[in-house]
Amino acid sequence: MIVTPPLADPAAGAPLARAAEWVGAVATGDVATAAATLAVAALGLLLLQGRLPLRRAARAALGCCLIFGAGPVGAGLLRVAAAAAEREAVADGSSAPPARLVAPAQPEEYDPYAGAAVPVR
User: Fold this and answer.
1) Nearest-5° Cα angle at 92, 91 to 97
2) Is the pLDDT assigned to residue 106 strictly greater than 90?
3) Reduced to 3 states, what is the DSSP secondary structure of residue 83?
């Protein structure tokens, strides 16, 4: 007797998360890096020959930088956010609240609107 799991039940783990990780790995893997390198080289060659406008070549190079730089930039931002949260947690527990500031006493005949523009009688 062969026991198989029902087709309606998802596999162990999150299948959408694994699929997203796979797409990310394919988009930034060795094959993608080689393809981007060849694409930038071909764009540079066409640019030097005068067959490609500078704006289009710059757009393609910027796209490659964004695709391959998004992971490290995101990881750096997450590291900074985690460090800031950790500093907040440490600062919240160890410091006393600041002392209240008291406003200086005002004279009895204090007029906040009196000044050089008000004539003296």
Assistant:
1) 100
2) no
3) helix
